[in-house]
Structure to design on (207 residues):
């Protein structure tokens, strides 16, 4: 209980994982090959490659919304498992150490996300979509994500098992309007005055 309280007080996923790399070093985008390797580790009940560490979020059929997500997930990889019934989704035994507890998830701030359209043709065996957080401005303007899903023989996405990759988005963060410094304002003011003086001198020279 003390440990769960500590996690709740932190409200950050990075407090739960130890010895992880800084968030800035985790910004590399997930590739199709990486996504397939994670799906393979789930299907074969085996640990994924070292570079593809992930956490698992599982919910019952009508539990926490995962497609699209509904929490302020921090930078990192997540496997989102939804059960086809009202029982919690099953987690492969070799990956049980990656499961995020319900008590921890209850402490994470909620956040609506939107999904883009599919990026791959229906004939592909895997699908990718982009995710955009639409909640707290400070969180949303610095995060982006992709969500990966396997496709069935009918071409439909298996939304009961998805991979979410949340990354720091330099493009979204760069869209923030930064306040101008006093030096910039003074320089702009000086330029305007200089142009005004030059115009006045031209008028005097050409009455």
């Amino acid at each position: 209980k003390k440990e769960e309280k500590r996690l709740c007080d932190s409200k950050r996923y990075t407090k739960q994982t130890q010895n992880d790399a800084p968030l800035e070093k985790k910004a590399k985008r997930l590739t199709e090959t990486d996504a397939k390797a994670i799906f393979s580790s789930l299907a074969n009940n085996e640990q994924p490659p070292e570079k593809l560490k992930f956490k698992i979020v599982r919910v019952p059929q009508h539990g926490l919304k995962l497609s699209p997500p509904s929490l302020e997930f921090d930078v990192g990889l997540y496997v989102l498992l939804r059960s086809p019934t009202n029982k919690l989704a099953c987690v492969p035994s070799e990956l049980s150490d990656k499961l995020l507890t319900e008590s921890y998830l209850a402490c994470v701030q909620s956040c609506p996300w939107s999904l883009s359209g599919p990026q791959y043709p229906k004939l592909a065996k895997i699908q990718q979509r982009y995710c955009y957080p639409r909640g707290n401005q400070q969180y949303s303007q610095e995060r982006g994500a992709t969500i990966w899903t396997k496709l069935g023989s009918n071409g439909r996405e298996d939304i009961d098992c998805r991979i979410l990759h949340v990354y720091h988005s330099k493009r979204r963060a760069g869209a923030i309007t930064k306040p101008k410094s006093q030096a910039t304002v003074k320089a702009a003011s000086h330029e305007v005055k200089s142009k005004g003086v030059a115009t006045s001198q031209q008028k005097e020279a050409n009455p």
